């Protein structure tokens, strides 16, 4: 949350930003200097000694990074001063440079006092004014730093009773079989195969790499990748019908081809239905095109940089008709009637109704991966006042992992700025610090200057009261305006921040939450352990980004690396973390996240052999914390009352539907009860109890992935539940010895509702109670 001192600039700059998808309460602050690109590979230094730790954890983390870096950096307001700092977020080894800069400034004197302290408190005509008052925590940290350099014994400040152990000490890691189940369910929506389990039993963790190689060939994995990256790009959520992404000006005769499609060969009664399906499939295929590009890149082990550089796009027999090029490429399709068979294709230069042809290099539309796709451009539209700044903002978020809205400059009085400057975004330092980064990228999208996301340059030419098209100090050559987005994509592919951003996106897909951000409140007594957790995660991200880069940007490398990382393998704590600092360090560890609606359906299918089905509908999906990629773009991470009710309904329905069905199969084909029959009930004999306990052990393994012995407390708890349900049924009078009225096995619910089957021992309903109980456990509903 930005502080109140940014409110004035927000009120002044808001009409210029108008970031369309920002929440109403989100302040549109301008960004400070962006994190600098690093050279490949990303350094991953080992922790330093005590003096280095004091500078890193106190001086830099609490003062330098948040108070000084914004101005005293290349491109900052104080870039001409001798006190120049470097952003160490991507290159921690730059801390040495920053420490030396602080030491030089601290040892210089003014009237016997360190210039560092004089400057930061506003002396010596400090251009930044008063940054830290003497009574603040930040100022006292600098005093201790100066004291250390001067050899004063009282300069260390108060000590701490907490000595951090190695970061993962006391953290329990998942066994290899449990990790295998976690990965197959998450990435392929299935349980491990017998062959995979046998490989793990014989070779242990060494078998995991080969198992993942095979899993990465499954269609379910590619579907998971598309689903995950839609959570990032949200391209299926643009307004209007799917074909609205194709402009009337360029695709007037073809975008509605389905309305003229010949269906005369069908019986009259079927034509209307077939027509609706034709339109529906066409629209689904259009919406899928950006995600199909991602799928194609991953499936074929192509450099993932092609999401920004691909000189092609994916088209199906249906979508190519919308673009008007089906006849030219139809021979490349295996099945021209399959709306969802996608192939590589290139659009010709766009030709408008006025006969004007888009300027291109060789008569081919200048494709630049997602950046030039009409779906992406429509999902993030512009306005006359926004001037493509939303697109620039989303570019930084999606491709470089930078949220420009979270970067805040120092500001002055907005009214004074408006009075002093005729064009504040080009003249006022408080606005320039933002717009000199955002506006050049916005200018690269200038050929798509309309609210619909269609190709259409501004008739008057691009705005001259903005910083010219380019990217972070590099200007676009005027003659290459026609390929501006291709140029942007190529620059992006060379930017080391791209690798970091993609590693973070895969983290989000696997962990269900975003990566940690650096803590901001230096008054927080847990600031240092929270920052340690952040730094440990960043170190892992940099290591994985190095592997990603070395692999030629093969995204499968990132999935493998995260799967092998200790962050993904965490399975709880071996001992309770008692010190508050240790609790803060470990707070974000583990895969403790609520499964999405889509994942719940896939898990039910994997365990029981059939989906529940209700979470496939958008209404239930939204109620259960899902997204529609339009109005609802963030998945819920904590359950609501409605979600709790859906959990209970799901557990009841799934148990009701599957228990009797499973008993009616041959024992060798059963998923739930392969080793027991419904006539086995507690009768006081060890044999009966042993059979029931073994059946419960199997259910715990099948449904929850728990490998418990038969005398485990959780197995005993479940056994008591089973016995108690039977006891209640026997004690109560008037309970028929048939299964529940609503749980009869039925082929047609409309005809056979209420069909009953015998349940003379009440065991079927007792087992239903057990399955219901297990489906409500965290180990099923969470990952």
Write up this protein.
The strands form 4 sheets. This protein has a two-stranded antiparallel ribbon with strand order 1-2. α9 crosses α21 and α21 crosses α22. The chain has 33 helices and 8 strands. A hairpin with a 2-residue loop joins β1 and β2. Among the domains are: 143 residues, no CATH class; 125 residues, no CATH class; 92 residues, no CATH class; 185 residues, no CATH class. 48% of the residues lie in helices and 3% in strands. It has 783 residues and is mostly helical.
Describe, in short, the structure shown.
This protein has 783 residues and is mainly alpha-helical. Helix content is 48%, strand content 3%.
Write the layout of secondary structure elements.
Layout (H helix, E strand, L loop, with lengths): L6 H11 L32 H19 L26 H13 L1 E2 L2 E2 H6 L16 H13 L21 E3 L2 H13 L5 H10 L4 H8 L3 H15 L14 H4 L16 H32 L6 H4 L3 E3 L1 H7 L2 H4 L13 E3 L28 H6 L9 H12 L13 H7 L3 H4 L1 H16 L25 E2 L2 E2 L8 H11 L1 H16 L15 H24 L4 H10 L1 H4 E4 L6 H7 L10 H12 L9 H6 L17 H23 L22 H19 L8 H19 L17 H4 L10 H13 L2 H4 L2
Antiparallel strand pairs: 1-2, 3-8, 4-5, 6-7
Helix pairs in contact: 2-3, 2-5, 9-11, 9-21, 16-19, 16-21, 21-22, 21-23, 22-23, 22-25, 28-32, 29-30, 30-32
Average of per-residue pLDDT values? 86
Q: How much helix is in the residues? A: 40-55%
% residues in beta strands: under 5%
Instruction: Assign an overall shape.
Output: flat
Determine the number of helices (DSSP H or I, runs of at least 4 residues). 33
Main sheet attributes: strand count, strand direction, barrel closure = 2 strands, antiparallel
**Strand runs, count:** 8
**Measured distance between first and last alpha carbons:** 30 Å
Rg computed from alpha carbons, rounded to a whole number of angstroms = 31 Å
Spatial strand arrangement across the major sheet: 1-2
Low-pLDDT ranges: 1-33, 43-48, 745-754
Query: What class, by secondary structure content?
Result: mainly alpha
